[in-house]
Amino acid sequence: MGFGKTYLILVFCESSEIVEAAITSLMKYFMEARKMASLGLTNEQRKMVMVLLCGAVLVVLNQTLLSPALPSIMEHLQVDATTVQWLTSAYALMEAVVIPLAAWFMGRFNTRVLFIGGMALFGAGSFVAAIAPVFAVLLLRRLLCLIRVAR
What is the pTM for the complete model shown? Predict the structure, then answer.
């Protein structure tokens, strides 16, 4: 299964088994791509590219997997459609502010620190979302995950 098909499955699925199968397929795809095209990179450079690609996939999934979940969020947190839409709108608005700051961050910190810090914030944001008792906490989680984008 290619990257495009796997990505579409991840965007439109609701079953954890399908997500696990799609992620496994993605990893196989990346491993095969690694074997086919070394591009003159050393092993360490190839590992770095793989880690960065996986991080980029997390960013894309973080944005696209939310849309199918909006009805469930509305039901569980008892909010209306216009309120729950702020999860995607606030994320997009903050991207316009945070992404230009990436150059500033990269000038101040090395890439490893930024990546590890970003992934830690992403994990913390995901944990906050899992225990979110109210909508405002869930919105805060989205903004924590956005900071990870600026790494």
Answer: 0.56
